[in-house]
Design a protein that fits this description.
Distance between the termini of chain B: 5 Å
CATH architecture of chain A: 3-Layer(aba) Sandwich
Largest sheet of chain A: 9 strands, mixed
CATH superfamily of chain A: Class I glutamine amidotransferase (GATase) domain
Mean pLDDT of chain A: 97
Low-confidence stretches of chain B: none
Structural class of chain B: alpha+beta
Mean pLDDT of chain B: 95
Strand content of chain B: 25-35%
CATH class of chain B: Alpha Beta
Distance between the termini of chain A: 13 Å
Strand content of chain A: 15-25%
Oligomer: heterodimer
CATH class of chain A: Alpha Beta
Radius of gyration of chain A: 16 Å
Number of helices of chain A: 5
Number of helices of chain B: 2
Structural class of chain A: alpha/beta
Number of strands of chain B: 3
Helix content of chain A: 10-25%
CATH topology of chain A: Rossmann fold
Strand order of the largest sheet of chain A: 2-1-3-4-11-10-9-6-7
Radius of gyration of chain B: 16 Å
Shape of chain B: elongated
Largest sheet of chain B: 3 strands, antiparallel
Order of helices and strands of chain B: EHEHE
Chain lengths: 234, 80
């Protein structure tokens, strides 16, 4: 039985959407784990959902990164448990040091909520293996702080190690400033750790995982996790 | 003791809020503004009475939580 855990911080607001997406796509129940818990039950993967954890106080994700549950999430991630951070979850991963860089205020200063085109750059991570490399997918972003920033050395290292997982692109897959909604360096929308088991992404795959929602391009993020789970069973 | 902590964006890090403020100041008729950078100011009241220990604690607070050293610098004064 697949065991997925969704961490719930005060201010998370995509946690139930993620739970529903996991359950509908994988067929297994997902557990909600409150931020004040000392540990996450043994999990095949963990999701840090979107929202406004701790009201975005100080910096987005900064308070959540130091919450009691994150000590165990960090320990489990370092021990190999796959972790997906979506939107605010990506910010938490960066603030906790599990992923490099930081998500800054959008260059427009506006909260942007709309579908964007993304080019899948790495389809070997735990959460993107059901996509094709170079494929353009369309799923929504909804954030005011998604402007990915890291110094040039870090960006070069991420590129060199194939850790840029997806970029903002045109519908034809071209990477351009016009296709960059928030000013993210090198159009980066998602990155991974060295192992490909920790992935952070600003777009919300849980918002487009079945046709009733208007699209299914986000579905394969969760299907990828099922493939990973099945492989671990073999 | 009281720590007065200033957190500022590193040089070269784009500050869209600072730019918006500069633009607004210009619209209000303030001339000659070359640039605006926005930061944070935090005061922490400390029970500690030893300046060296207070300094050490504040240094850790800045590194661990108050500043994100990927994009921010911090500076502080301790008084009292």
């Amino acid at each position: 039985m697949l065991r997925a855990s969704v961490i719930v911080f005060p201010g998370s607001n995509c946690d139930r959407d993620v739970k529903v997406a996991i359950e509908r796509v994988t067929g297994f129940p997902a557990r909600m784990v409150w931020h004040g818990e000392a540990s996450v039950p043994a999990s095949d993967f963990i999701v840090l959902p979107g929202g406004f954890s701790y009201g975005d106080y100080l910096r987005c994700g900064a308070m959540a990164a130091h919450s009691p549950i994150m000590r165990d999430v960090i320990a489990k991630a370092k021990a190999g448990t796959p972790v997906l951070g979506i939107c605010n979850g990506f910010q938490v991963l960066c603030e906790s040091g599990l992923l490099p860089g930081v998500l800054m205020r959008n260059r427009s200063l506006k909260f942007i909520c709309r579908d964007v085109d993304l080019r899948v750059e790495n389809n070997s991570t735990y959460f993107t293996r059901c996509y094709r490399e170079g494929e353009v997918i369309r799923i929504p972003i909804a954030h005011a702080e998604g402007n990915y920033f890291a110094d040039d050395d870090t960006l070069d290292r991420l590129e060199g190690e194939g850790r840029v997982v997806m970029r903002y692109a045109s519908a034809a897959g071209e990477i351009s400033d016009a296709a960059n909604p928030n000013g993210a360096q090198r159009n980066i929308a998602g990155i991974s750790d060295e192992s490909g088991r920790i992935v952070g992404m600003m777009p919300h795959p849980e918002r487009l995982f079945e046709t009733a929602l208007g699209g299914i391009d986000g579905r394969r993020v969760f299907e990828s996790a099922v493939v990973g789970f099945a492989e671990a069973m073999d | 003791m009281k720590a007065r902590i200033k957190i500022t964006l590193k040089n070269g890090v784009l500050d869209p809020q600072g730019k918006a403020i500069a633009h607004a100041l210009g619209s209000l008729g303030f001339a000659g503004i070359d640039d605006v950078r926005q930061g944070k100011y935090i005061e922490v009241q400390l029970a500690e009475t030893d300046p060296a220990k207070a300094r050490e604690a504040v240094e850790r607070m800045c590194k661990d939580l108050l500043a994100n050293t990927v994009i921010e610098n911090y500076a502080y004064e301790i008084e009292g």
